[in-house]
Amino acid sequence: MITPVLLAGGSGTRLWPLSRRSYPKQFSELAGTRSLFQATAERLSGEGFAAPVVLTQAAFRFIAAEQLSALGVDPAAVILEPGPRNTAPAILAAALWCAQTSPDALMLVAPSDHLIADAQAFRDAVVAAVPAARAGKIVTFGIAPDRAETGYGYLELGEGDTADGAPRALKAFIEKPGPEAAARMAQSGRHLWNAGIFLFTAPTIRAAFEAHAGALLDPVSAALAKARQDLGFLRLDPEAWSRAEDVSIDYAVMEKARNLVAMPFSGGWSDLGDWEGVRRSVPGTGDGVALSGPATAIECRDSLLRSEDPRLELVGLGLEGIIAVAMPDAVLVADKSRAQEVRRAVSALRARNAAQATDFPRDHRPWGWFERLALGERFQVKRIVVKPGAALSLQSHHHRAEHWIVVQGTAQVTIGEATRLVTENESVYIPIGARHRMENPGKLPMVLIEVQTGGYLGEDDITRYEDVYLREAGE
Amino acid sequence: MITPVLLAGGSGTRLWPLSRRSYPKQFSELAGTRSLFQATAERLSGEGFAAPVVLTQAAFRFIAAEQLSALGVDPAAVILEPGPRNTAPAILAAALWCAQTSPDALMLVAPSDHLIADAQAFRDAVVAAVPAARAGKIVTFGIAPDRAETGYGYLELGEGDTADGAPRALKAFIEKPGPEAAARMAQSGRHLWNAGIFLFTAPTIRAAFEAHAGALLDPVSAALAKARQDLGFLRLDPEAWSRAEDVSIDYAVMEKARNLVAMPFSGGWSDLGDWEGVRRSVPGTGDGVALSGPATAIECRDSLLRSEDPRLELVGLGLEGIIAVAMPDAVLVADKSRAQEVRRAVSALRARNAAQATDFPRDHRPWGWFERLALGERFQVKRIVVKPGAALSLQSHHHRAEHWIVVQGTAQVTIGEATRLVTENESVYIPIGARHRMENPGKLPMVLIEVQTGGYLGEDDITRYEDVYLREAGE
What we know:
Chain A is α/β, with parallel strands linked by helices. Chain A is built from 11 helices and 30 strands.
């Protein structure tokens, strides 16, 4: 059995405005009707695969859990990294965790924000690589290049062995090249793109860390040993974790280890690393135009037009090499040659304190999600969706009153000592200061419209008395 | 005294998505904090100017009236054209109306959707042209070209008279030229752009119509004679009006009349005929980038970036010659060389029955306006703003119940036989079928959030019992 280890802690900004710190790329439906994280979990499930281990940030724990639950996947563990430390500490933590349950566990480590069109071809490559991993090799997966890409690292294959469908000797890791080197490698037949996907046993990778990055073992072991169970999540110890070096697995281990082999595979891989990568990943119409959502292209070429909202019409007219991504609160229009620089848009907005730099319009919570519909001088309107069986915390507010109108499903509402059911087309009023709670006792999502009135409407005007999700202040 | 005649009936689509059939360009705050219509009315007010005569469509009557009222301008008449017939019938109707009140009225006819940066320079030119108009001339205003524009018609001046600041002889009207002719005329010193602004007396223009477009006199006279007063508006007779030819004033009269003179003026005129014109009208920053609203340009050139909503961030990155206009329900991204083709975007949306082709997100009504905040399976949320002293019709709905929460000001609400005041942070419920009315008895705008629930939520589920605005079915 292979244990998938899904790396889901990133919060990149190159796919802004769709990817934001509060709801990054791997959880978005960037391609198809499932998130990239869900697609990755699904790709690594079925015969031969054990339950996955997920590594992510505390801020994303309920999103990850909910997305797995929607797939019917029950993870072996959801390990929470107290802070970003890049891939090496995360992979070591996963290896130590796996070794606890099964000393010679076979681990398939994969980013959860990549696209692989042909899942079966990928699984076949994984299965073909198992003997090498069992024999103590670190197997790294590589993609035969079809263009002179300067945005990826490369794997240089050794000479000699050419057996099809089996791992090959690896001569060197090559960092992101310049255009000339990229052109040469794209033609050589001996270079693959480094997909950042690995297969190895827990003892093999532990030995590699001991040999090449020994300083990580102490802090990461301690972070795991002192980890705290929080509902279904495993929170690594923040103090120990903070002592681990912030370093990538390539730099810490892969570029130094001698027991690596490369497993080539093809099947439509993309890291969707920027919007130009997303454009290229969409099956072509001949003119290079990729559309998504209610988007219309009139005489456009080599352009990406994405509307991320069913009620937002995006029209491109006479565009060439333009990326346009529209959301109701933020729109990006960029020349496609600048796709790698989209984080500059985020920096510019952050400098102006614009919430759009970091906050996704839908605010995902353990009980469901909400979004702001309107904000006025002394009022705010929200749409709130509560999952079946979920409950908001018992809370009160100092500065606002709330009107709730249930428009779908049934709410169980507590105000002070009284609890009652509120059904579709009924409303309740929560006075300033009243202790209240909203639950969804039903089997379907409950939707309500909340109208807040008051002199201060910030999310931080909340006093929590009970919370089934054990959230801390500020969460 | 000069009577301004403001032509405000157009509903062009070249400035989509800001300009839409339900709320066209002249009423938008395209430049500055006043609409172009308001700026035009203001430019033609003060010493020497009488109250304006406005020509517009019935659909825009309350918008026009409200925008004038906000300026403190009380129009002499708001004449409603029953259907679009281009400028000639509209100007003739205005001339006949003016002659009724003052037989030798001096009329300044102007489109209401142009931009003139220097209003005083324009008024000076008008005053300087009065003697010629009094002497029986048709004075047409022209702008010295500063580029080889192919989007405007030209006025060719006669040779000889060169007195500065006085009208000059006109040799010919020239239709929109090709690039070569435009380049020649831009250099000649004897050509002006035709601004479509005219000064003449009512008898002069009537005589010109009799001489060159006599067939218009009978239907337009009849449309005015049988016009119907409707609150403060004058509705021309639809049957008579439908018999008037659809023809421009240039074609019907100006290209044929021999008593024309041209009055040159400069002062920053633009017809804002397309987004490229809008871009050019914004004072340059050197890089040709024009920004409006929360828009950010990063290394862009010769581009227009407009966000039409204070909560919608628009970011341009590395753009050259791109027009991007963002609204919460529609976004246009176009190459600036295609600015004249924006109507194709509207056609494409209309073909898909997208409301954004024609409907502005804020729906303006005589009592104020509303906008949809959310639309669900069986519910809808609206923000409704009612002007001080205004009242919605007494009405009922067959298929929906409504919850109203007042968030600003005070509403007087009638449900069945009962009337009560509802103040900020109070709510009321309107059951299906109940007769109800909402009024704003206060001195400030009243804002309420309406949550509708029901199986059918169309605007046409309304039975009106009383309406102070005398609206007809479907209005």
